[in-house]
Amino acid sequence: MDDVLATADRLWRGEVTTAELHPIGHMGGLTEVADGIAFLPSFANATAVRTTDGLFMVDTGSSVVAPRIHEEIRRWSDARLDTAVYSHGHIDHVFGVGVFEAEAVSRGWKPPRVVAHEHLPRRFDRYLRTAGYNQVVNRRQFGFKDLVWPTKYRYPDETYSTERDLDVGGMLFQLRHEKGETDDHTVTWIPSLKALCCGDLFIWASPNAGNPQKVQRYPAEWAAALRRMDALAPEMLLPGHGLPVMGADRVHQALTDTARYLESLVDQTLAMMNDGARLSEILHTVRPPADLEGLPYLQPVYDEPEFVVRNVWRLNGGWWDGNPATLKPAPDAALASELAGLAGGPAGLCDRALELLGHGDDGALRLACHLVELAWLAAPEDAGVCEIRRQVYTARAEAATSTMAKGVYRWAARESLGEVT
């Protein structure tokens, strides 16, 4: 326990950063954060509570780490799993029940029940319809070259709409639906322990309310959810990613700072939309509040504020960015060929991209990407163009802070060498 909580304390104080100890993917041993409640850091965390009827769990892990989670839980308790709650339907949170079900069969136990919000089965249905797309985007996002998107899911046994109280072994667990990263989120409040299992509504990083390759996020609703969570006065915050936040004052600060961060991005974006600004102008104007940008639990190591702005635009204004030329655009390759011709050929675009690359600042890197992409679209078989494209996107990936951006740029660099399909 000391190692996990001591590390969490060091993160809070800024003695170690989330760039060094990334909240997505940290593996650690099971920690009993209070009497009868265990927290297990993983690619997606799992929380277990002992009751007289057996274990109550919030999230059960991905298919890859599920056996390890089960093994860690069994070192802590031999009780059967009575109830598992899915905080939401992302696949890193919902694939561990099967290990416990197999155990129940072998030991003659009553099988566990699974509870989730009523939107969650629709997510699984969508995942089945878009399995190929999700396989591609998750390989790109995380760099998992051999990831195979699942096509079999453990659907919940019971669902609820707004709120649901569960009594397990005489202990009260209060479930509440919230929208934020997803539309199927469940927050689990354990009043007797003053513990709040928040899923991915807090992840020790700038909120994942943008994600360029995934479905709509809900930043305004997310902020409201954080305010409601804070009103419970929790003393333990047990997130879906990252380490626990312990103590009422720290939990209050984490929840309200994150709420204000999102509220500011939403308010600034809507104000500029209402003034008739184009998306491009908004993207390069809106910034998080200066007093929040440096906080150790709001760093853009997974998602980025710029991507959140895009989701605010998409939710409130549609898909068009306000530029008349992009309403019905020419094919990318046609535009690239035209501009390459005006520049004296793809080589001219590449030369300028390399020149910009040498400047090293963010604005120059952005322009370099535009130019090298035009060159590549105009001459995708040109080995020299492909090599310069690889160099530009490799540099862009190295300069990026977020998992989202790094994944896209590294994918493009490998694509330049024909390493992805």
Features:
single chain, 421 residues, Serine Threonine Protein Phosphatase 5, Tetratricopeptide repeat, seven-stranded mixed beta sheet, six-stranded mixed beta sheet
Summarize the structure.
With 421 residues, the chain is an alpha/beta fold. The chain is built from 15 helices and 13 strands. The chain has helices at residues 2-13, 66-76, 97-107, 120-129, 131-142, 219-231, 248-274, 279-283, 290-293, 305-317, 332-342, 346-359, 362-378, 383-399, 403-416; strands at 31-34, 37-40, 46-51, 54-58, 81-85, 113-117, 158-160, 163-168, 171-178, 185-190, 195-199, 236-239, 245-246.
What does this protein look like?
This protein has 421 residues and is of the alpha/beta class. It has two domains: 261 residues, Metallo-beta-lactamase domain (Metallo-beta-lactamase, Chain A, 4-Layer Sandwich), CATH 3.60.15; 87 residues, Alpha Horseshoe (Serine Threonine Protein Phosphatase 5, Tetratricopeptide repeat). Helices cover 45% and strands 15% of the residues. It contains 15 helices and 13 strands. It has a seven-stranded mixed sheet, sandwiched between helices. A six-stranded mixed sheet has the order 8-9-10-11-12-13. α5 crosses α15 and α7 crosses α10. The chain is globular. The two termini are 44 Å apart. The model has no long low-confidence stretch (mean pLDDT 96).
